[in-house]
Amino acid sequence: MRLYLVQHGAAMPKDENPEKPLSENGIEDVKRVASFLARSRVSATRVIHSGKLRALATALLLAEVLGPGNMVEEAASGLAPNDATDEFFDAIEEWTEDTIIVGHLPYMSKLVSRLTTGDEEETVVHFKPGTVACLERGENGGGWTVSWFVRPELLGG
């Protein structure tokens, strides 16, 4: 099973729009990342987001490019920037389908760290807006490992 943990794309500043939707650059970055994921044959059937406008827009752009049949769903709770990782850490252990989770910092970094090391304070990766970390279960005796990590600037544009 694979998890694709995504920090939402770059958002507009709060003083320009209090809801902080994706900026034009954020939209373009997410489209590049989505195209990369499609070319890499990523086949997640679920895209879960925090419910914040910038995460929702990122999730919809990813699902649109990755193909029909991807279910986009808002997490009832547990994906806000400063939430504890407990809820998703426990839920993920029951999942069997490849899944994309779109969220915020510092949460996404903490979730990667907890899944791979058991300690959410142990920094494993440094996210920037639009970044995707692919984690794979089973490569290290059933635990999680970082399979790959990509930032939008690595994809040109």
Task: Give a structural overview.
The chain has 157 residues and is an alpha/beta fold. The chain has a single domain, classed as Rossmann fold, CATH 3.40.50.1240. It is globular. It contains 4 helices and 6 strands; from the N terminus they run E-H-E-H-E-H-E-H-E-E.
Outline the fold blueprint.
Elements: E1 2-7, H1 24-39, E2 46-49, H2 53-66, E3 71-74, H3 86-92, E4 99-103, H4 107-117, E5 132-140, E6 143-150
Parallel strand pairs: 1-4, 2-3, 2-4
Antiparallel strand pairs: 1-5, 5-6
* Low-pLDDT segments: none
Classified in CATH, the superfamily is: Phosphoglycerate mutase-like
Q: Please state how the strands of the largest beta sheet are arranged side by side.
A: 3-2-4-1-5-6
* Biggest beta sheet attributes: 6 strands, mixed
How many runs of DSSP E, i.e. beta strands? Answer: 6
Overall spatial form? globular
CATH uppermost class: Alpha Beta
CATH fold-level assignment: Rossmann fold
Number of domains: 1
Order of helices and strands: EHEHEHEHEE
Rg of Cα set: 14 Å
CATH architecture annotation name: 3-Layer(aba) Sandwich
Q: Ends: how far apart?
A: 31 Å
β-strand amount? 15-25%
Put simply, the count of helices is: 4
What structural class do you assign from the helix and strand content? Answer: alpha/beta
